Amino acid sequence: MSDRPYTTVLIIPTGVGAEIGGYAGDALPVARAIAQASDRLITHPNVLNGANLYWNLPNALYVEGYALDKFAAGDWGLAPVRQNRVGIVFDSAIEPEIKLRHLQVADAARATLGLHLSDYVVTDAPLQVELRTAASGASWGTIGNPGSLLRAAETLITQAQATAIAVVARFPDDFESEALQLYRHGRGVDPLAGAEAVISHLVVRQFQVPCAHAPALLPLAIDPDLSPRSAAEELGFTFLPCVLVGLSRAPQIVINQSQSNNLTDIWASQIDAVVIPANACGGSAILSFSQSNAKIIAVGDNRTRMQVSPEAVGIKAIAVNSYLEAIGVIVADRAGLHPAALSSSISSLRQLSINH
């Protein structure tokens, strides 16, 4: 047994219609189970965010997608923290009543959860978020005024000493769209997720601080046929609570490994296992991890709109049917057992020929 903490990375790509993790916090049970089987779990907001619902996982690290890509490549490290000072950026396009609802949520998070929040900033121009859908069905989006977002984030960092940034952008209301109706009924792709990723990527790339996004939308009409997987987003006026909770303990980013605290900071070389949907293996993070000693565990029954198998990109992976099986592989590996030893058929050893 190694004295080093067993560290697992759980990746479920954003906006690709994952059957588990493609909705409102529906991957939280998976994260909770994997966290129990590991000393440390590293995952991203798409997995842990459940709008007004969240779960405290003391050994989980909440890492934004761009930062996770840089971490996987070995460029950045992660420094666990006890508490961040979270600043909030509000899109100036948000109507006064909706902004007030979000401010009340922020105050409630301070009063009931003890979170450390700074003063907030309103952007100097509307962010102009637009939503798009790729041919594959994956969602993405654009932001018309990225400079306005970055100026607001810089103000929070320099004037309010914020160490993490929550962004609340006004997203288009498209109540009658087919994509939204399918998503609410548990049969479609999250139409907001791709655009949300663009927003957080911009801030993390520019300032190297934790960031996550909560869209501002008008409340939807009640739907009696709502899917349980989408229901968390229907509970209130805002998606902000889970973002504030996640960012409150999100690890800080370490840029220079030579200045890293070797006792506490985490680097890609310390990752033991990476769990990924089996047909979504084309992302930057998983391609980087595949070049390391980490075990790649590909989960077959978490289907997505992507069609990139481990074999298609030359990744050696352990194929499992479910997250329950993935957890079994992690437990066996942590115990120093080869997974094949737990099956009923073990092949005999073969003699190799010596090359002359």
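[next item in queue]
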Amino acid sequence: MAIEIERKFLVRGDSWRAQAYRAQPMRQGYLVEPGGRASVRVRVVGEHAHLNIKAAIVGSARAEYEYEIPLADAEPMLASLCIGRVDKVRHYLEHDGRTWEIDVFEGDNAGLVVAEIELEDEEASFTRPAWVGDEVTDDARYYNHALAQTPYTRWP
């Protein structure tokens, strides 16, 4: 079974931008209503598309499966089958030997910036950069499937 181990943090300021070496716009939507055992996502990044299935649990470790699908299939899925959308630009940077992904959300989630780090196990140590703020790994509101349903700009 594929397991993703990932921690999420809010981002303070823009100082991280000077370290970013790549940025990718992403469009994604969800095919399954919230409340099920898994989230099923269609994501388009450039000319590539993927179907992703993740266990619908909150926490740093969860089952994840991802499959490449034809872009010609993903586009109509996003347009007509998805329940909610998330648009963002993902920036990649290295800090202390580890890759960090910084998601700058757009559209209904504009103003939200979240950093993620994938780890080899739940006890792995890492150095937190100065721009990393509060951890939100255990806050379901910050998961993309939740942001597709209740966007950041609509939070009370």
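[queue empty]
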